[in-house]
Specification:
single chain; alpha/beta; three-stranded parallel beta sheet; three-stranded mixed beta sheet; 5 helices; 6 strands; 23% strand
């Protein structure tokens, strides 16, 4: 990855597995090896949100999910939970929208992220491709 020298890196969730033993160290090690050289933007998937485990609330218990996201942020990752960041790339504004995984399936994208601007470059980071039509509208 370092040889590619990317402008940004994006991750759209499920950076953990269904294993109850997965503490996220694989991703942490990857991020540590990137040495903070590149901005990393991250949104959650259902695995981070706690779905598909024997205990569906595993990451909700004892602040585990929050501790994981705190660790990512300590490593310089920008965790976007229904948030937007704006980058200035020369003469163009680039909006990166991060849509937090919603386990209920209720997307409500405009309520969560606001309207996008057709005059600017808009990039949506979302975990679930099933809602593509709603994202595009």
């Amino acid at each position: 990855m370092n040889n590619l020298e990317p402008n940004i890196i994006v991750m759209t969730g499920d950076m953990r597995t269904n294993s109850p033993d997965d503490n996220g160290e694989v991703l942490i090690t990857l991020l540590e090896n990137l040495n903070g050289e590149y901005p990393v933007y991250y949104v959650t998937g259902e695995h981070e949100e706690g779905k598909y485990f024997e205990d569906e609330n595993k990451y909700m218990n004892e602040g585990t999910k929050e501790a994981y996201e705190d660790k990512l942020e300590e490593l310089g990752v920008i965790v976007l939970n229904d948030e937007k960041v704006q980058l200035n790339n020369r003469k163009e504004l680039i909006n990166i929208y991060g849509l937090k995984e919603e386990l209920s399936g209720n997307i409500n994208i405009d309520d969560r992220l606001g309207k996008s601007s057709p005059q600017e470059v808009n990039i949506l980071l979302a975990h679930t491709p099933d809602h593509f039509n709603e994202y595009a509208n």
